[in-house]
Structures are given as C-alpha cells and as structure tokens.
Amino acid sequence: MATTSPLDEHAQKGEYVIRKSGRPFTKDFRIHFERAHDGVPVSPFHDIPLYHDREKGILNMVIEIPRWSNAKFEISREKSLNPIVQDTLDHAPRFVKNFFPYRGYIWNYGALPQTWEDPDHKDPETGAPGDNDPLDACEIGRAVAPGPGTVRRVRPLGVLGLLDAGETDWKVLVVDVDDPVLGARLRDLPDVERLLPGLLDATRDWFRFYMVPDGRPPNEFAFGGQWKGRRFAEKIIADCEDAWKRLVKGKTKREDISLDNTTLDGTPGKLDPDEVRLPPDEDLPPAPIEQDLDEWFYIDRKTAEDGEGSLSGNNMTIVLEMQE
C-alpha cells in the first residue's frame, strides 16, 4: 500500500501520492507516483498534466529539490514511468556544493510535466538545441517543499535562457498560487523586482557559477543573461508542450527517453495500469554522505570568468596566509 509523502496542506488537495523505494542518497533510490483516488501508477513526465487550469494559466510543477537542500534529484528520462532519482557525478550520488552566499538550491526546484526541450530542434530564440529534458522551474513562494515528489500549482512569471554545454536549458520562474501572501501578488517580473528585490540577480548569479566548485567553467546565457517576462515564458512553455506531444505520440526521435505512461490512450508507450508493478513502498534511513555539505566555496567572480576556478573554505585560509 502506497503512503502519502509529507506534503504541505495545499498539496494534500492534489491528486498524487508517492512511493519510495531504495535507500536515500544511493543510486537505487526511487520515487514513483500514483493517483491518490485509485492508486494507478503514473509518470510525472507524461501522465501528470502540464496545466492544472489552462484557462487561468495555472500549471502543475513537480518538485525535485526543496529549497536549501543539496541532493540533486531529478525525473529520470530513461526508466519506466520516469521515477525521481538522484543524479550522479563521477559515478557517485550528486550533491550541489554551497558557494557563498548561497546554501544549496535557493528556490524549490523541479520540472513542468508534459514539456520537453527537443535536442534535435535548434531553439530560434537561443540558436542552440534543447537539453532533452522537461522544462526546469524555480518556485519562489515562501514555503519550503517538504521533500522531492511534491506537486504544486504554480503561475509562470518569467524565464531565463541558460546555455548549458551548448544546449538550451530554460529556467522558468514560477510562484505557488496557494502561497497566502505571494500567490496573488506575483504576476510578472516587475512584481518580483518590487516585492523580492535581488532575487532575479541572485538566480542568474547562481546558475552562472554553481558548477564552478566542480571544476566546470561558468555557464553562459541567451540574451546576455536578460530575464524575459511572463508572456515570453508562456510562449516557451507552449513550444515545449508541443515538442512533448510530438515525442509522446512517437512522431519524433526519442533517443533514451521512456515513453511509458498509463493514461494517454493512442500513444506507443501506453501501459495497462493493472499490469504495472511498482516496488514496495519503503522508509529506509539515508545512506551516509561522503561529501562535506557544510563546506563553503568562495568564488572570485572575475577569476572564475577567466577560467581559474574557485576556492574552498580550507584553500581560502591558505591563500590568505600566503598573502600575509
């Protein structure tokens, strides 16, 4: 019997529960989704609708990474029914490093279901192909998501065009419409600038440098890092929804993507839900984390721009002693 995730109050009104298997912070950990009312297994990529209310422009968002946390969870493209898994780096579970002044992810981070950035299509806005994933979303409401697998109702506010290793990787800024303070007040980027000053600049800075502590160069942006507003974001979402429709109907090359679903009649990946067997629901203790999640990295932005990397807390102490 599947159990509900510890969702916040408004998420309990939703239609989905999660089933966890494997030990957290290992390669075997999985979060599968089921419909709450009948227990039918679903894919968070293909079965959860993009729109909670299309007429009002309210989207569903699948939270993969709660704010302030470091474990990089993501919807798996390849596995049947696309469970949430932990990404790997150098064959080990991946944790994003803290770099001053940011601790972990600075928003609730996740994906918009039923969207796809097509790697065989050059985005006319960026001139680069898509990254083969659902659209990423950064949710900026006040409440920290209780865990991966939360499904929230959100409104798009704007979008940032990240270019990651030559691929288009849009970051859609959204707000939880059920947030009692910000949900009704944030409608577009000017509202974010007015009510949450500094957040847009911090978000761009985070995406620019977050891979530098892992030895990667700073990321690039489309439009010189300029944010685009709600209407532009809605166009990107519509384009990626159309790309997903072609994908799930088998009308475009799918590469390593599993199209398995239980609700989309007439699609090549449609499964009989009565034949789907998910792993038993488990509540196992997390595995030990080898990485020091309290370590901070201090990045000289100009030095990083020149390709000279970052300094950890320990290395920073050594440099300061040498300068003395």
Automatic annotation (TrEMBL):
Region (Disordered) residue spans: 259-287
GO BP terms, alphabetized: phosphate-containing compound metabolic process
Q: Per its UniProt record, what InterPro entries does this chain match?
A: Pyrophosphatase (IPR008162), Pyrophosphatase_sf (IPR036649)
Q: What is its EC number?
A: 3.6.1.1
Broadest EC class? hydrolase
Among SUPFAM superfamilies, the record links this protein to: Inorganic pyrophosphatase
Q: Family per UniProt?
A: Belongs to the PPase family.
Keywords on this record?
Cytoplasm, Hydrolase, Magnesium, Metal-binding
Required co-factors:
Mg(2+)
Record's subcellular location? Cytoplasm
Which taxonomic lineage does the organism of this UniProt entry have?
Answer: Eukaryota, Fungi, Dikarya, Ascomycota, Pezizomycotina
What domain of life does the UniProt record list for this protein's source? Eukaryota
**Which residue intervals are annotated with compositional bias (Basic and acidic residues) in the record?**
271-280
The protein depicted here goes by the name Inorganic pyrophosphatase
